[in-house]
Amino acid sequence: MNGEAMRDQWYPVGIAAQLTPAGRDSLLLGEAIRIACDSDGAALVTDGAGRALPVITRFGHVWTTLGQPERDLFTIPEADQPGRRLVDVGTVLVRCSPLRAVENFLDIAHFPFVHTDILGSEPHTEVQRYEVEIRDDVDEVWATKVSFYQPQAAKSAQGGINAEYMYRVPAPTCSVLYKTCPARPEEWDVITLFVQPLTETTCQVWPWMALFDEDSSMTDMIHFQQMIFVQDRSILENQIPALLPLDPGMEIPTRADMTSIAYRRWLKRHGYTYGAQLVAA
């Protein structure tokens, strides 16, 4: 199987509050799984042969694995911070590589052109210098000191602001964004992208947020984030090649692509190749 290392990772497969005893069928890395709950509401995940798979319930989602992860699922301390609203955004099926979905989430340069007058606008198109590193002590990719002008940085934002960002990649198909919180400038809003790899070219995306927002309704916050991701979907589903290229010679990067370069290098280092293209076709 291509990308054996990907089996030993945790993946989101559902929202805990939406599980039913009847269950539902799905895919994970091309293999059949079933997600359900017992009479007490505890999550149950089985493979195609009916074998029980490991389960973790965290960030309102159910996570499982087909292999034997060497470590626990990552944590997000802000999820336990009093006063934050935890938002299960739902799910979006995207016909693209699961790695492409994460890389797009890390990209800032597309904001003015895809999320026009919301996350970006012309002529504010320049991506300022920022810092990227692979933090070996935690084995994560981080981008810091990211700054970008946004007409509406969040549902609660009133007018444009110069938003500060930090990006964190704690797992091959997960990314965590920390950005300026309009309601509390001293805090960070947290917006995540949890991706379930169905096949190498299709994925289920489960966005989740931990926000300080006392004014917006839960429905409005969900609709705002879903609108943003649906704008991305048409771009993702038309990218060529469909798989994420890991060979540095296959695409020409720019300064704005520093996070993408580090992400691809990190994936290749660990053999995370499911959904990736290693050499030019």
UniProtKB/TrEMBL annotation:
Q: Which domain of life is it from?
A: Bacteria
One Pfam match? VanA_C
Q: Which InterPro entries match?
A: Cholesterol_7-desaturase, VanA_C_cat
Q: Which SUPFAM superfamilies does its entry note? A: Bet v1-like (SSF55961)
Q: Does the keyword Oxidoreductase apply?
A: yes
**What are this entry's molecular-function GO terms?**
dioxygenase activity
Q: Which residues form the Vanillate O-demethylase oxygenase-like C-terminal catalytic domain?
A: 94-269
Query: Which UniProt keyword terms apply here?
Result: Dioxygenase, Oxidoreductase
Instruction: Give the protein name, as stated in the record.
Output: Aromatic ring-hydroxylating dioxygenase subunit alpha
